Amino acid sequence: MELTHFDEEGRARMVDVSDKAETARVAVAQGKILMKPETLERIRSGQIAKGDVLAVAQVAGIMAAKQTSQLIPMCHPLAITGAKLSFKLVEPGEIDIEASVKVHGKTGVEMEALTAVSIAALTIYDMCKAIDKTMTIQGIFLAEKLGGKSGHFVRD
């Protein structure tokens, strides 16, 4: 497998996808943010001064997926056809985040799903940092990818 974001002179380039077929593509990414148990309880009970943490993180993640090409230089701008985020509150102090992004296009949406999870986690951190500066974002990864030349990938 060769790296495709470099030209023959070793310089960065955006991959030319002109000749690729348009297919339905889906990417699912996951990650988590760890926090003090009391921070999780305040999120659960809606007692964070800045508002509904998970609702804001959900919107932020979707917005981030749509802006990925503005953040990561070699990503193609994509007409995303669907994006959703879900959160699972895990005792004693963890929120698991999952993003699923869909497109019908010539290139995949892995980076968009990973960006959605990352920004959702950062939004949770931002909204709760006044009460818990010890939060840790970790384990962001591609869980599944469908479509395109490389086919179906599921992380073990």
Q: What is the number of helical segments per DSSP (H or I, 4+ residues)?
A: 4
* Measured distance between first and last alpha carbons: 20 Å
Largest β sheet strand count, sense and barrel closure: 5 strands, antiparallel
Q: Give the strand order of the largest sheet, numbering strands 1, 2, ... along the chain.
A: 2-3-1-4-5
Helix share of residues?
A: 25-40%
Uncertain segments are: none
Which class do the helix and strand fractions yield? Answer: alpha+beta
Compute the average pLDDT: 94
* Total count of domains: 1
Outline? elongated
> How many strand units?
5
* Overall radius of gyration: 17 Å
Quick one: CATH superfamily? Molybdopterin cofactor biosynthesis C (MoaC) domain
Q: Give helix and strand order, one letter per element, not per position.
A: EHHHEEHEE
Strand content: 25-35%
Task: Enter the CATH topology name.
Answer: Alpha-Beta Plaits
* CATH class label: Alpha Beta
Can you characterise this structure?
This protein has one domain: Molybdopterin cofactor biosynthesis C (MoaC) domain (Alpha-Beta Plaits), CATH 3.30.70. It has four helices and five strands. The protein has a five-stranded antiparallel sheet with strand order 2-3-1-4-5, covered by helices on one side. Helix 2 runs antiparallel to helix 4. The relative contact order is 0.27. A hairpin with a 3-residue loop joins strand 2 and strand 3. With 156 residues, the protein is α+β, with helices and mostly antiparallel strands. 29% of the residues lie in helices and 31% in strands.
